[in-house]
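so i finally got all the pieces together for this one. its two components total, 850 residues if u count the protein bits. some of the lines might not be protein, just check the labels. i wanna see the whole assembly predicted at once instead of chain by chain like last time, that was a mess tbh
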Amino acid sequence: MSVLERQADDLERDMRALAGAARQAASVLARIPADRKTAALMAAAAAIRHDRAAILAANAHDMDAAGGSLSAAMLDRLLLDDKRVAAMAQGLEVVARLPDPVGTELARWTRPNGLDIARVRIPLGVIGIIYESRPNVTADAAGLCLRAGNAVILRGGSESFHSSQAIVASLKRALAEAGLPPEAVQLVPTRERAAVGMMLGMADLIDVIVPRGGRSLIERVQRESRIPVIAHLEGICHVYVDRTADLQTARRIVLNAKMRRTGVCGAAETLLVDRAAAASHLPPILADLHAAGCEIRGDAATRALDPAALPASEADWTTEYLDAILAVRIVDGLAQAIEHINHYGSHHTDAIVTTDKGAAARFLDEVDSAIVLENASTQFADGGEFGMGAEIGISTNRLPPRGPVGAEQLTTYKYIVRGTGQVRP
Amino acid sequence: MSVLERQADDLERDMRALAGAARQAASVLARIPADRKTAALMAAAAAIRHDRAAILAANAHDMDAAGGSLSAAMLDRLLLDDKRVAAMAQGLEVVARLPDPVGTELARWTRPNGLDIARVRIPLGVIGIIYESRPNVTADAAGLCLRAGNAVILRGGSESFHSSQAIVASLKRALAEAGLPPEAVQLVPTRERAAVGMMLGMADLIDVIVPRGGRSLIERVQRESRIPVIAHLEGICHVYVDRTADLQTARRIVLNAKMRRTGVCGAAETLLVDRAAAASHLPPILADLHAAGCEIRGDAATRALDPAALPASEADWTTEYLDAILAVRIVDGLAQAIEHINHYGSHHTDAIVTTDKGAAARFLDEVDSAIVLENASTQFADGGEFGMGAEIGISTNRLPPRGPVGAEQLTTYKYIVRGTGQVRP
C-alpha cells in the first residue's frame, strides 16, 4: 500500500467516523423538544457574539492566505467583519424564532377497519452541505438544519477553512452547553478534495446532499452523488412584458428584477417583450436600464428600437450573467414567450407583467418553473420574502422540495398507524 | 464506426425520440382537465377488455418463449388469463375513479406587502418505470401515471415483451380515442439491456425513475441513474411483541404479518419478543406458525423454548425471505427492540404489539421506518389499504415521496405568486 493510498484510507476512516457521529447525534436530535432546540440556537447566537475576536482572527488568517489568488469580489465574499459576525448571530436568532416543523401532523384519517393513519413530519436525518467561499453559510446552514432536528456535515470552501473552523467551534460549544450533542454539527476537517467524493458516497450515513455554489460544483455533485441531492442550479429568470402591461408597472418591475441586486439567483437575465407593446414599452424600459448602467444585448427587433443595444447571440438566452447585463428579445405574444422560457430557462423563477387576467393565468399555468409571478419582481425568489424566515437556497429539483428551502423543507415524513389488533383479510 | 457502435447510436437516437415525444405529451397532459383524464382511463379499461384475445395471444407467445428458462413461480407471474386481463381493466377503472391530485392548492398565504403566494400541485412530468416480469404492471403503472397527469416510459421485463406491447397498443388507442396524446404512454421498443442505461442518463427528458423488482435491479438503478429515483427497496419488516402484549392479539397479528401472503414486501421477516413475555407468549405464537407451515430460525433463547426452531445466523436478521420462514429473537425490552429494528431493518414497515400506551408511543416515535404500526399487521403496508386506491409501490426513500406511492405521490408543486406591481426593496 502506497503512502497516498494509506492517506486516502485514513481520510475515509476519519470521514466515516465523523458521519457516524453525526448519524448518532441525528437520532438524539430527532426527539429533542422544540424549546430545547430553540434554546440551543439562541446559545449558538450568543457564542458567535462571544467568540467574535477568535472568528475574526481565523478569518484574517484565511484572508492572508487567499490574498494573492482571489479576485476582489471573491475576497469580499470571504471577508468577515464586526457587522458580518453580528449578522450571523442575528441570523441564528431569526432561525431560533421560527416554528419547529417537526411533529406536525400533515394528514390524518381513519379507515373503515378502524385503522387510524397519520402522516407526521420528521427530520431528514443527516444533511451534507457542500458550499463555496462565504463563511457565514457555515452558521446559517447549521442553524436551519438544527431547527428542523437534523445533524449537518459542513464542507466549506477551502478558502474559508479557518473561519469555518472557528464558527463551528462556537456552535459546538453552544450545543454542548444547551445539552444537545455537539456532534450534530460537523465540519469536514480537511481541505482535501477527495473528502467531497467520500461524502457523496456515504449513502448509509448521509441522507441528503445540498450543494451551494457555482454550476461546476452542482454538476459534479449531481454526477457523482449516490445520495439524493437538493440542487440549486442557476437562475435564468425572465420577465415577460405582455401587450396589455401597464407601462409604469413594467418599468418598475424590469428595473428591479434586473438591477436591485445583479448577483442573486432571482435576478432577471432575459427580458421578453410582446411585439404589440414593443414600440410603446421597450424604449422607456431600456432607457431606465441604460441609466442604471445595464448593458443590453438584444435581438434584431430590439436593436432596431435601441441603437445602444449590442447583438444577442444564442448563448445569451442561456447565460446567467449575475451582472448588469440583460438579454432582450421581442416575441410574437404570450405563446412564444412561454415557449422561450420553457426552452431556454432554468425552471427557476419567471414573471409576467400584464393587465390581462387570462394571459396571466395561462403564463402562471404553462411556465414550467418552481416560482412563477404575476406583476411582481423575480427578486422575490427568496425564502425570507416568502415568509419562511430563512432559506438554504432555491431548489430547482423537480421532486420536492422545490423552490425556497427553509426549515420545513428540510424534513420528511413517516406514517404512524394505530390499530386495535387489526389483521389484513 | 463499427456495426455495434452504429446500433448503439441508432438505439440512443430512438430512445431520445421516444422520450422527447413523452416530454411533449406530458406538457399537454399537464393541462388536461380531470374529467378528460377520467374518460381516457375508462376508455383504456374498455380497450383492454376489447383486445383481450390479442393480449392473450401475445402472452402465449411470451409464455412459449420463456417456457424453458423460467421457474414455475416466474411463469405464473408472467401468465395472463381471462381473469387477469379483467383485473387489469378493473384496475384502470379504480384509478379512473380516484380524485385527480393536479391543481390542488397545498397552501396559500398573503405577505405583508400584499403578495399572494400559493403552492399548487402539478404533475411530475415524465416518469420512467423499469420493472420485471409481471405484465399487468404495464397497465397499472400507466394508469396511475396518467391519473396524475404524467407521461410514462415503460421498460418491462424482457420475458413479458409481447404482452406489454399488446397492452400498450390498447392503451395508446384509448388515449387517441379520448383525444389525449398517445405518446403519453411509451414502451421501450427493444429488449436491449443498453436501453435501461440510456433511460437512466436522459435527465433532460425524464423527471423521475421508478424501479420495481429485485434488489439487483434497484441497486443498479440507484448506482447508475442520473435522474432522481423513487426506490422500493426490500421490506425487512418486524413485529415486536412487548411484555404487556395481549396474547391473543399478538398471536393473530404475528400469524397474519408473516403468513397471510409471504411474497409481499409488507410480510414480516423477523419477530422480536420481549424477554419478560417470552415464556408466556412465544410458545403459542410459534405453535401457530409451525401449524401454518412456517420455518422458525431463532436465537439461542428462542431455541430453548422451541426445539423445532433452527438456529438463526447473523444473515437472518437482514434477509427478506419472501417465504414461509421467520427469524425470531428474544430481546431485553423495548429499547433493544428499537435498536435491532433500526440497525438490521430496511426502514420499510414495523409493528409493535402492546397494551402499554407509553411503549407504543416510544416505538412509533423512535423506529425510523416509513410505516410504523401499533397493534396491527405489517401487511397493511399497501396503498390500497391506506385508502389511496392504488399504488405503484412502497418508497423506501428518505426524502418524499416515502411510504405508499399513489397518484398524489406522483406529483410535485410550483409556487404561484400574484402581485400588483410589487418590487423588492
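Chain B touches chain A through 65 residues (CB under 8 Å).
The first helix of chain B runs from residue 3 to 29.
anyway lmk what u think
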